[in-house]
Amino acid sequence: MAVIHEIIAHYNHWIIIFLMVSGLYIVVARGNMIKKLVGLGLFQTSVYLLYLSPGKILGGTPPILSPDYSVYSNPLPHVLILTAIVVGIATIAVGLALVVRIHEAFGTIEEDEIFAEDEDE
Amino acid sequence: MIAANLPALQVVVPLLGAVICAFLRRGAVAWAITLVVCLVMPAIASTLLAQVLTSGPISYALGGWRPPIGIEYRVDVLSAFILLLVSVIAAIMLPYAKRSIEQEIPADKHTWYYAIFLLCLCGLLGMAISGDAFNIFVFMEVSSLATYALISMGKDRRALLAAYQYLVMGTIGATFYVIGVGFLYSMTGTLNLADMASRLAGIENSRPVLAALAFLTVGISLKLALFPLHVWLPNAYAFAPSVATAFLAATATKVAVYLLLRYFFTVFGASVIFAHLPTTEVFLLLSVAAMFGASIVAVFQENVKRMLAYSSVAQIGYITLGIAIANQAGLTGGIVHLFNHALMKGALFLAIGAVVYQTGVVKISDMAGLGKRMPLMMGAFLVGGLSLIGVPGTVGFISKWYLVYGALEQDWWWLAILIVASSLISVVYIGRVVEVVWFRQASGPVKRATDPPASMLLPTLLLAAMTVYFGIDTSATAGVAGLAADWLLAGIR
Amino acid sequence: MSADTLIALALLVPALGAGLIALTGWNANVREGVTLVSAMSLFAVVLSLLCRVLDGQMPATGGFEVVQGLTLAFAVEPLGMLFACIASGLWIVNSVYSIGYMRGNKEPRQTPFYVCFAIAIASTIGIAFAANLFTLFLFYEILTLSTYPLVTHKADDDAKAGGRVYLLILLGTSMVLLLPAIIATAVIAGTLDFTFGGILAGKTSDTVIAILLAMYVFGIGKAALMPLHWWLPAAMVAPTPVSALLHAVAVVKAGVFTVLKVIVYIFGVEALSNAGNATWLVWVAGFTVIVASLVALRQDNLKRRLAYSTVSQLSYVILAAAILTPISIVGAAMHIAAHAVSKITLFFAAGSIYTAAHLTEISQLNGIGRRMPWTMVAFAIGALSMIGVPPTAGFLGKWFMLTGAMDTGQWLPIVVIIASTLLNAGYFLPIVVQAFFKAPGKDVQEHAKGEAPFPIVLALTATAIGTIGLFLYPAIPMALSKMLAGI
Q1: Other beta carbons within 10 Å of A29
Q2: How far away is chain C from the Cα of B402, in angstroms, using its nearest Cα?
Q3: Of B177, B299, B162, which is closest to residue B244 (Cα–Cα)?
Q4: How far is A86 from chain B (nearest CA, A)?
Q5: What is the count of structural domains for chain B?
Q6: Which end of chain A is more exposed for a tag (fewer CB within 10 A), N or C?
Q7: How many cross-chain Cβ pairs, B to C, lie less than 8 Å apart?
Q8: pLDDT one-digit tens code per residue, B288-327
Q9: C vs A contact (3+ beta-carbon pairs below 8 A)
C-alpha cells in the first residue's frame, strides 16, 4: 500500500517521464519533419515541468512578499523556465523555417523520401 | 571603467554588433562592423588572460548582483585560454570571409550572415565566460541556433537537411544539459558553478546527482561530437559555407569540451569522476573508437570537406582521451590539442575553401593537378595534413607527445601504441589528397585556377605558419595548458 | 669561429642552399653552381668541426626548449662526426653526378629535385649532430618527408606505388614503434640526452629494456631490418642520384647511425651486454644479412640487386653493434664509412649504364665493359669492396667485425659474415665477369655507344678512388671509431 501511495504521490514525475519519453520517441520514430519538431517540443515541455514541479513548496504561497506568510514557493524555476520556453520557441521557429525551405528545395518533408532522392545524387 | 567591465564587454560587443548588422542593407558595411568587433575581441581576451595569469581568477558580477544569487562571469586560466582561442580564430578568419561569402551566399543575405556569425561568436564567448549553469545554457542555445542558421546558408540544398538534423540532435543535447542542471539545482539549490561545487561535497554519490552527471555528460558530448553522438557533424561541415565550416570546426566543439572540463573537474571534482565511476573506461573506449573509426571512414570519403569532418571527429577523440587519461600530462595534451586542432583544422578548411572559391570543386578526384596551380594553398593544406599526422615540428606532434607521455605514465602501453597507430591512418587520407593534387594532370575548372586573392591567402598562410610556430615554441600554448591542467586537477576554480 | 657557430652553419648552409636553389631555378647553370657551392661550403664547415673533434673536443650548442623536457639541442660526438663527414663529402660528388645524370636523361622538374636534395642533406646533418633523441627524431622525420618527392620524382604510377610503400613503412615504423619508444625512454630515464654509457642502466627491468630495444631497432625503419625492409627495393623507382643518396649517404646511413647511437648512447654497450638481452638482435640481423643476399642473387634488375645488397650490408652494421664489444663497435662505424663509399660507386655505375645505354637488367650487360671501361672498372672496385677483398675499404669493416666476434667467442656472426661474403661474391662477380669477358650481346651492341657524360664519369671515378683510398689511409675514420668505442 505504501508503495502505491509513493507512486501516486510522485504523479508529477510520472507525467514528466511520459512526456519526455513520448517526445523522444516521436523524434526518432516519425519521418515527417514537422512531426519530429512536435516531438521535440513535447520533449522540451517535459523539462519545463521537471523544473517547475519541485518549485512548488508544499504549504508555500505564491512568491509575493507579505508579512503574513513565511513559506513561499520558489520563483526561480519559473524565471528559468520562461527563458527556456523562449529558447524553445526560437528553436521550433528556426526548425519550422528550415522545414519550409526544405519543402521548397526538395518538394517533400518526409525523411525517407528525401533520403531516397539523396542516394541518387 | 572599461577595464573593470571587460568580461561583460566580451559578450556584449558582438551582441550589439549583431543587432547593428541585422539592420544594415549592404554586405560590405556589415563585414566592416564585424571586422571591428572581431578585432576588439582578441584584445579583450588577451587582457583577461594576462590579468588571470598575474593575479588569479576574475569574478565579475553581471549587473552588479553579487553571486551566488546573481549571475557571475568567472574567468580563470582555462576560460581565458578558450576565450582567446575563439576570438583569435574569428579575427583571423574574418578577412577571409568577405570574398568567400560573396561567392557562396546570395547578396541579399550577406548582412544576415554577419549578424548570425556575430551571434554565434557571442554565444561561444558567453559559454566560456559564464559561471552560472543556466546562463551557460542560454549562451549555448544562442550559439547553437546561430550555427544552425549559418549551416543552412550553404549553397548545396543538403545544407538545409544538415542544419535540420543538427537542430534536432543539438536541441536534444541542450535539453539533456538542462535536465542535468535541473537535478543539480534541486539537490544543491544554486546555479552558480563555484557555489555548486562546494555544496556538492557530501552528496556526490546520491542518485539525482549521478543522474545529473549522466545527463550533463551525454548532452555536452552531443555538442562536442563524441563518438557515437557525432552523426550530425560530417554533413554539417560538408555543406555549410566554407568559412562557416572553418570557424565551427575550429571553435564550436572546443567550447563544448571546455564545458565538459568545467563540470568534470571544477563542479564535481576529479576524485568523484574518476575514482568510483566508470568514466575513465567509457571515455577511453569512446575516444579510441572515435580515433580509429572516424579516421578509417575518412579514408573512404570522396568529398574533401567530409573527409576533414570525419578527421575532426577523430581529433576530438584525442581531446577526450586526454580527459580520460586524467593526469597532468594527459590533461595538458587534451587542452593544448583544443588550440592545436583549431589551428590545423582552421588552416585545412580555409585552404579547401580557397579551392572552392577558385574552382568550385569539392571532390578529391576533381582536385587533380591543383598542386601546381595553387601551390600556396596546397602547401598550407600539406602543413595542416602533416600536423594531423603528428610530424615533429608541428603542433600535432606536441599534443601527441603529451598524450602518449600521459598514457605511459599510467602504464597504459597499449593506449600509447593505439594513439600513434591511429595517426598512421591520417597518413593514408592525407596522402590520398597529396597524390591526387601533385601527381595528376589538371583538367576542367582546375586548369584555370590560381592562388586566391590576398584577403583569403593571408589568413590561411597565417594559420599554417602558426601550426609550425606553435609546434616549436610551445611556451604560450602548452605552458598555459599545463597551468590550466594543474588547476583543474587541484579542483581550483 | 666558435663551436656553436660552426654547428649552426652546418645546418644553415644546406638549408639556405635549398632556398637559393629554389630562387635560381630559372638559370640551370647558376642553380647547379649554388648546389656545388653549398656542398663545398658544408664540407668545409664539417672539416673544421672534424679538426676539433680529433683534438678531443666535443662541441655542443645550448638547447631551445620546445616543451618541458624536450629540447632542441646539438652536440658533436665521434660517430656523428663520421656520419657528417661522409654525408657532406659525398654530397659534393653526388651533386656532380646528378648534374650529369639529370641533364643526360633530360629529367623534368630539376629545381624541386635539387631543393629537396639540399633539405635532405640539411636533415642528415641535423641527425648527425643531434644531442638528444627528440632533435634526432625531428630531423629523422624531416628526412623521410623531404626524400618522398625525390623517390616519386618520375610521377608515374610506378613511382606513386613505390612512394606509398616508402612513406607508409618509414612513417609507420617511426610513429608506431620509434616514437613510443622515445617517449617511454623519457618517462623511464627522465631525459633524452645522448650520454656515453647510456641513460637507461638500472632504471627499469631487463624485460622492459629488451622490449624497448626491439621497438627502437624495428622502429628505426631506415635501417631496413627484415621484415621492414620493403621500402628500400620499392624506392628504386627513383632516379639513380636519389638511389645513390638513399643508399650511401643519407637515409640508410641515418638508419644504422641511429641504431648505433641508440645502442651506445641510450642503452650503453656495457649495460646491454651485462643484461644479456640483445642476443636476439644478433639472430635477426644475421637472418637479414643472409636472406637479403639470397634474394639479391635472384634479381635481374641491377638496381634491385644493389638494393637487396644494401639491406644485407646494413645488417652487418647492426650485427656488429649487437656483438657488443668495443672492437665490433669500431667495425660497425668503419663499415658505415666503407659501405657508403662503395655502394655509391656501384649506384653511380648503374646510373651511368642507364644514362649512356638505357639498360637496366643484368642479363643485358654482356660485354659492356669494353664499351664503358671507366664505369665498369669502378663497378668492379665497388663490388670487390662489398665482398671485402683488400685493397678496398670493405675489408676494414669486416676485419674488425670478425675480430670482435672471435674475441667474444660468438660463432653465429662469424658464420654469417663468411657465408654472406661468399654470397656477395656470388651475385657481384658474375656481373663483372659478364661485362668484361663475354661477347657483347644484342642490347649492348644496339644501345651502348660509349661512356656516360663527363660529370658522371668524374663522380664515379672519384668514389672508386675513394674506396681504395679509404683502405690505404683509414686514419681519420679509425680515430673517430675508436673514440666512439672508448678505446
Answers
A1: 10
A2: 9
A3: B162
A4: 10
A5: 1
A6: N
A7: 76
A8: 999 999 999 999 999 999 999 999 999 999 999 999 998 8
A9: no
pTM of the predicted model, to two decimals? 0.91
C40, three cell numbers: 663545398
Beta bridge partners of B75: B58
Nearest alpha-carbon partner for C36 in C462, C28, C338: C28
Question: Per the domain annotation, does B172 fall within a domain?
Answer: no
Handedness of CA C247, C251, C257, C260 (dihedral sign): negative
Three-class secondary structure of residue B276 per DSSP:
helix
Search chain C and give the residue with CA nearest B437.
C155
Tell me the chain B residues in contact with residue A114 when contact means C-beta distances shorter than 8 Å. 161
Q: For residue B51, give the nearest of B10, B19, B89 by alpha carbon.
A: B10
What domains appear along chain A, each with residue ranges and CATH number?
Answer: 2-120 (1.10.287.3510)
Give φ, ψ of B303 to 5 degrees: -85, 125
C71 CB neighbours in chain B (<8 A) are none
Beta bridge partners of B395: none
pLDDT tens track for C55-110: 877 788 877 888 877 888 898 888 888 999 988 889 889 888 888 888 888 888 88
Distance CA C206, CA B112 (A): 67
Select from C187, C193, C151 the least CA-distant residue to C170.
C151
ipTM summary value: 0.93
**CA pseudo-torsion sign C263, C267, C273, C277:** negative
**Contacts for C55 with CB less than 8 Å, ≥ 6 apart:** none
Q: What is the extent of the structural domain holding B410?
A: 280-493
Of C362, C331, C380, C339, the closest CA to residue C444 belongs to C362
Query: In this structure, are strands B72-75 and B58-61 parallel, antiparallel, or unpaired?
Result: antiparallel
Task: Round to whole Å and give the CA distance between C418 and C289.
Answer: 11
Contacts of A43 (CB under 8 A, 6+ apart): A19, A20, A23, A24, A27, B172, B175
